[in-house]
Amino acid sequence: MALMFRTDDNQQWRMAMNNEPFFATRDPEGFLALHQATAPDPATGKPNPQRLAAFLKAYPEAEKYLKWAAQKPAPGSFAGATFYSINAFYLVDGLGNRQAVRWMMRPHDPFVSLSEEQRQKADRNIMFEGVSQRLAQKPLYWDFVLQLAQPGDPVDDPSRPWPNDRRQIVAGTLEVVRVEAQADGPCRDVNFDPSTVPSGVNVSDDPVLNARSAAYSHSFSRREREIGYGKATEAVEKQEVK
Fold first, then answer.
1. I want to staple 167 with a disulfide (CB 3.0 to 4.6 A). Which of 12, 87, 148, 211 is the partner?
2. Could you report the per-residue pLDDT of 198-237, keeping only the tens digit for each?
3. Residues 89, 203: contact at Cβ < 8 Å?
């Protein structure tokens, strides 16, 4: 889920959230190492055990993620999915006091999963079509929930979720009443860089957050260039310009 808030003085707060509560590794280099370690060996079609073992020795925190990912259910709808900031930020008051937070968008709809057989047969647009059908009945809602860190909680490591007993505050509720096509919708030409924050919100020193900012910028620039040259056919719903 990506969101952009505008303040009364025209500042922006952009969010890019994922439907998983934590990342596999503590730093961006680990993302590449994970990709390499889990890549299928051409000879067996499965990851090389020695390569995976070496990766887990360097990034032991990833074992927790791999076990979680292996059993997590496939969502059958965006409507019932929870979306997480994963990275931590700071809320800053007028005196400069800081409170580390993470947040989630918690749905009012129940989570609905797909079986493996359903997932294999599903059309690639099933999630988007499901939202359109659901909105034809009534709006969708997500609560914007802040999770407050306590002293000692890891702020700069997105592979370590905070305990569930940390205080949570419902700061607001998102209401979705309609959908618009990507081709000419308001989100197409926005870089949802999660490091774009207004006064009163500071980014943490999380290295993955910094890497996301750079990666999103590069991706956005490439997409805009492709649109300009008539190559991003799915983004604009037009035939490719030869």
1. 148
2. 999 999 999 999 999 989 988 888 888 887 767 666 555 5
3. yes
What Cα–Cα distance (Å) separates residue 59 from each residue in 29, 65, 159, 238? 10, 11, 10, 44
Residues of the chain with pLDDT under 50: none
Bridge partner residues of 173 (DSSP): 143
pLDDT of residue 92: 97
Residue with tokens 């419902």: 170
Rounded CA separation 38/104 (Å): 28
Q: Which SS3 state, helix, strand or coil, does residue 146 take?
A: strand
| Antiparallel, parallel or unpaired: β 113-114 and 74-75 | antiparallel
Question: Which phi and psi angles does 172 have, rounded to 5°?
Answer: 170, 180
Q: Which residue type sits at 165?
A: D
∠ CA 155-217-230, nearest 5°, is 150
Residue type (1 letter), 107: P
Other Cβ atoms less than 10 A from the Cβ of 103: the count is: 21
The residue type at 206: D
pLDDT score of 63: 97
What's the rounded Cα separation, in Å, for the pair 48 and 215?
28
Judged by DSSP in three states, 15 sits in: strand
Q: How many CB atoms lie within 10 A of CB 236?
A: 17
The tokens describing 178, both together, are 């309609």
Q: Give the phi and the psi of residue 164 in degrees, each rounded to 5.
A: -65, -15
CA of 42: how far to CAs of 35, 38, 39, in Å?
Answer: 15, 12, 9
Query: What pLDDT is stored for residue 114 in this prediction?
Result: 87
CA–CA dist 44, 54 (Å, integer):
18
